[in-house]
Amino acid sequence: MVKCGLARDDTAKDAILILDPLTEWREVLGAIKRKGVIAIAGICNSLEGRDDIGHFMPNEATLYEAGFDFVLFTHLFQGRNASSAPPGGSPSIFNGFDVYSATQRIKLLEKENYIRVCSVIPLSETAVGYCDVVASLLGISSHNPINTVLARSDKAIMKECIADAGLRVAKFARIKRTCDVPNVVSNLSLQFPIVIKTPQGFSTKDAYICDSENDAMSKVDIILNGKVAPDRRIPTLALIEEYIGGEEFEVNMMSTPVRIECTDVWLYRKTIGEGVVRYISADMMDPGEKKLEMIVAYATQVAAAVGTVYGAAYLKLKATYCEEKQQYIDPCMIEFGARISGGRKTTLTRAVVKGWQPFEALIDAHCGHNITFPQSFSPGDQHACQLFLPHQISGKVTEFKETLSTYHSHVLLGKVGDVVERTTDIASFGGFVWLAGPKQAVKNDAQTVWEFFSLQTEPVEKEFNMGRITGVPNLESLWIGNLFSLSQIDSILENPKSAGSGSMVEITILTLLSSSRLKNFARDCVDKQKEKLESKGIAIHHIVVDLKDNCDPNFLSGPLPLAVDKIDDAMCLSSSISGVHKYCLIHCAKGESRSVAVAAAWLMLRRGLTLQDALAKVKRARPNANPNLGFVAALHAIEASNNDIDQAAKRLCTK
């Protein structure tokens, strides 16, 4: 029998409550079943309203099928033989995050089914903020301190607690308004790049690396005026942080009242570009190595500082290697979670560390039992590695290749036929591969995994990529699209209102991008189309205008006038050449912001449309049109200045 921290009716059946069965939940459930106790799943964050991460949370049917005895919802608790979930799916147990009402329902569940909940285990970031409160209300003594709950769930309070313990943290500040960014950057003496993030996170979701003040302001605006945060709250604050250099590590730990033990350490390889981090791999290291001594000590001190006494915890940190000391030094926290980490690292550690049963240890820790740790957490001659499979481009998944014979496991976050966006964060990868085995074999497989284990993606159908602006008199040849429209330039001529037979045809492509890599990609696409179309007597002109998708105050005085002039040339407004059919395709990366703003501005400046009419015409061609707030402000300034772009620029600067 699993003993609970507070003695209650010894004749009742023991049960364990899992809040938000998200990270490694099947493994945790298996350990619960092996102990012969009742398994209860409670969903306090269904991730509704977040289509980008909502698919990670299993539904009711999946949880029951896997072996949970009870799954808890807002309005009732359902046993295995209960009726189906209410219309609309599985709602949250914590309607409005009311832990008191939720605990009342848990008590009722205990009474009606003659069970007692012995521990509450969180498997998501949101659950970390509630599990200790629920455990306390249930009379369970083996929970982390209530007075440090916020230190384990709020990133700002967390940093303050860690700093109070004398440990290094990044400089940071809370920010309420977009316009406060310049003052905060100055007051903290921050150097770019800097980090903008939500107060509560979901790994790298809603966290941005910003290279400029304008970029930072636009990201703060996204957080404060955009979608719900990963914990389903509407953020009223954003965090602005110092960017910490060095190599990135993850340290996983198991805590008891007696000790905090480091169980495994991982070193990340990644790339940083366009304001986002893209992980390549995570390699297991030996936590007993001398070079990791400061990292491990720092991690356990951080866990103690935020009140982690029972259960698993992980810390992501940065550190730099000192050749003189032969050690990583100056560790600094990036993220902390009082739960087991994602990425199946706990499962891989079990596979390579002899005698370690982490999921049983997790349950024992939360029940207040002693844990039997192995003599060493060294993987020895074994090794483990997590590989990240990105979507290199946005488009439709056409093929999944798997010919690698030696791997631990893999998971795909989509299927063939899905339309996907290019990978920008941890939740938008196409899948993951885990390797475990002899060190050299794992390293060899990791070197070749990209060749043998890949996701093949092609651009989506052309109607998704571009559209023709219609409804404007004497304008039949202005198109707007995204990056993938470049592979479908010839479809412009498939329209019955396009070029007449035997006429000379010129197509001007106006590329609005800032990334050198994307510009080169665009040039390559256009060059390929040139070879095909010029053989048919169709001339292709490619013009690239450097334009960032942010609130750049120079938009009206620099990039926009240049872009308008180029569209004029393409549409024959600046020339009197006759007998030549000219077409213009305006595109940016997604066809949502930059190209939309420029096309709308041209319609206002050259065709006299109001801002409302111009945006309506553009949105008819690109239904996903969504220019950033800086571009919208510029368009309003143009309209308020009677389409005088110079006056609009002055008006915008004086605001």
TrEMBL record:
Which domain of life does the protein's organism represent?
Eukaryota
Domain spans labelled Tyrosine-protein phosphatase = 444-644
Bilayer-spanning residue ranges? none
Mind telling me which SMART domains this protein's record contains?
DSPc (SM00195)
Mind telling me what this protein is named? Uncharacterized protein
Q: Which GO terms describe its molecular function?
A: ATP binding; ligase activity; metal ion binding
Q: What is the lineage of its organism?
A: Eukaryota, Sar, Stramenopiles, Ochrophyta, Bacillariophyta
Residues forming the ATP-grasp domain are: 159-367
Q: Where's the Tyrosine specific protein phosphatases domain?
A: 585-625
Keyword set for this entry? ATP-binding, Ligase, Nucleotide-binding
